Amino acid sequence: MAFTGRSRETIRSELLAAWAANYAARGETLQTSAGSDAYLMASAFAVQMEGIEAQAEQTALDILPDTASAEALDRHAFVDGIARRSGFTARATVTVTSGAASTFTIPAGTRMSFSDGTPYVVESASVTTSGGSPSGTITVRATEAGIAGTRVIGDVLTFATAPSGLNPTGTVASVLRQGTDAESNEDLAARIIARRRERPGSGNRADWASWVEAYTGTEIAQTFVYPLLAPPVSFPGAGTPSTPGCVTVVAVGPAQGDSTTNTRIVPTDDASTRTAGAELTRIEEYIEGDRLPDGTDVNDTPNDPLRPVTVTPGNYSVEAIAVSAENVVVDVVVSYANILAFDNSGLIPGVNNSSSFGPMYGITAGSRFSIVTVAARLDFSRYDAYDVGTLGARVQVHIPLPVVKPFARIGGGWAWLGSLNPASALWTCSPGSTGNDCPSISGWNLNAGAGVDFSVQRWLTLGAGLDFYLLNLNRAASPTQVNFMRTGDSMGFQLALSAQAAFRF
């Protein structure tokens, strides 16, 4: 049982009770009321004892890493040969504009800031603006490490003092590196415990994990070691299992909230080589002794390789996580429909230029690639005189914000009229029906919409949107007679205000 220190009030009460009991055993009475000599003496003792016991309680907690304080946890890590991972500063390119094409000198360290006050400094020494609307690109970094410095494309940064000739603001054009916070106590404790459960040695799994995690030239959040797995042909990819003398290590980058741009690929500062395997190749060079843990190239005076001599360079790899995300979206929709017929009789006998409110039910299934989702969509709407169904494809694009993600989407496909109401003439109609009383009514639809999603969990997103459906429907002619009053095309539209839940697997 963990030791728990007592409060000074508890200590004082227990001392006075013990002293009073001793006095009573001798037939005497001890005065213990507030202000008495015994009370004052017990209070002085209690203050000292409270501090001693508080220190003892913390010492008891610091014995094990899962309950240790930050300072003690760093000591645990030092003894075990690891260190707390420091955070990284965010870096980005910023497009700046001027009144004319020219070259502008920007002193190193020129400050910029975001609207929330997050400070940045310019790394570029100069920028040349050109083009019809003169613009150029500079590189900036956050002054402090942490996720708070991460920006998205389109964010506006403002110069503290704009260089003469340049406009006072610039727009983020690309993200070179996301900012990351320093490793939390919980994550560091987990790494220490994992290391103690499986000690590195002789090229075992823990050894490979420790080598990769020791590389500080980039941010690595997790590592997964797969013995007997031959390296894949390309990054990322699947290797060949059950291959003696081979090993594959998957390095995973930091989690950055629920941003759709975050694939947990290990980041790199080099924008020109920002591929899945770029920074991971440098980690392999560190294992080979060609780089220091901070990424410094030492090819002139290389160190001995960390890997076992029995594992050749071609038989191991450090690769990126293969990211695959799919969405299954279930929608509950309230819609308004207006079907307009071009002919006098309309598509349905007795129903012409009909409009009404009704519910729409839909389901979407597809895959998300970064900010783009490609999916199949099925909708079914219930109205008084008829039901409307649509089946097709949809492309949706999200703006990659951390929690709230606006989106726009377009789609199209097949559309048809029918009914689930037994009283309707369309109740018994088959898709191929051509009779006057039971016609086949179908055609095509185009749809477009916009809305916003809210990330609740990594696997759950709630959203709302407004969609417009354009319908072009045709009533087939009877095989035995052609009645132009009962055949032809009709146009119509649906407006759908939707609430949806998206489940991501």
Structure characterization notes:
By secondary structure, the protein is α+β, with helices and mostly antiparallel strands. The chain folds into four domains: 8-63, no CATH class; 91-177; 198-320, no CATH class; 325-504, Porin (Beta Barrel). 17% of the residues lie in helices and 36% in strands. The strands form four sheets. It has an eight-stranded antiparallel β-barrel. Helix 1 (8-25) crosses helix 2 and helix 3 (70-79) packs parallel to helix 4. The chain is extended, with a radius of gyration of 35 Å.
List keywords for this structure.
eight-stranded antiparallel β-barrel, extended, alpha+beta, 505 residues, six-stranded antiparallel beta barrel, 4 domains
Shape: extended
Percent of residues in β-strands:
35-45%
Uncertain regions: pLDDT < 50 for 5+ in a row?
270-274, 341-345, 478-486
Q: In terms of quaternary structure, what is this? A: single chain
The SSE order reads: HHHEEEEEEEEHHEEHEEEEEEEEE
Mean model confidence by pLDDT: 82
Distance between the termini: 42 Å
Neighbour order of strands in the largest sheet:
12-13-14-15-16-17-18-19
- Radius of gyration computed on alpha carbons: 35 Å
> What's the number of helices?
6
The biggest sheet, with number of strands, parallel, antiparallel or mixed sense and barrel status, is:
8 strands, antiparallel, barrel
Number of domains: 4
Structural class: alpha+beta
Give the number of DSSP strands: 19
CATH fold-level name of the largest domain: Porin
CATH architecture heading of the largest domain: Beta Barrel
